[in-house]
């Protein structure tokens, strides 16, 4: 049986240098490495600068998004993402902390993983619990994509028409729902 090809979106971010390589260059190298690890990279967003959260907690982030196409499972894609993060010095020591590279699988087509009930549980968690708790398994679509301008702005460059399979809104519509100041805080990185 041939698996159905799906377009997935990966969000990339970094705010710490790795081996004296600045975050923007680390993202470029990571995209190349993802392709080298067998992921079929499609569209690439512009790079954006985003303030660290919470404010003053560290250097600004560089964020981007890419699409990948293929018939790999979401678990196989996640394994590649974790391998590449590790190659670029990522250590999973602090939730929502500073990092040399963060690669998040935002969506895998219109898949809801593992179940709608489990997805809803994580989507509805209050922010103070989200900061401390991490799911033991992959949740798709990413349960906070609709809340994060730093993901949606780059994602609008590469998959503006992707429709959230639970919320029923496109990336453009999700962006329009965010506070304007959140969206304005995500600025294109100047060369």
From TrEMBL:
Gene3D superfamilies: 7,8-Dihydro-6-hydroxymethylpterin-pyrophosphokinase HPPK. SUPFAM superfamilies: 6-hydroxymethyl-7,8-dihydropterin pyrophosphokinase, HPPK. GO terms for molecular function: 2-amino-4-hydroxy-6-hydroxymethyldihydropteridine diphosphokinase activity. Pfam families: HPPK. InterPro entries: Hppk, Hppk_sf. Its EC number is 2.7.6.3. Keywords: ATP-binding, Folate biosynthesis, Kinase, Nucleotide-binding, Transferase. NCBIfam families: folK (TIGR01498). Belongs to the HPPK family. This is 2-amino-4-hydroxy-6-hydroxymethyldihydropteridine pyrophosphokinase. It comes from Ruegeria aquimaris. The lineage of its organism: Bacteria, Pseudomonadati, Pseudomonadota, Alphaproteobacteria, Rhodobacterales. The gene is folK.
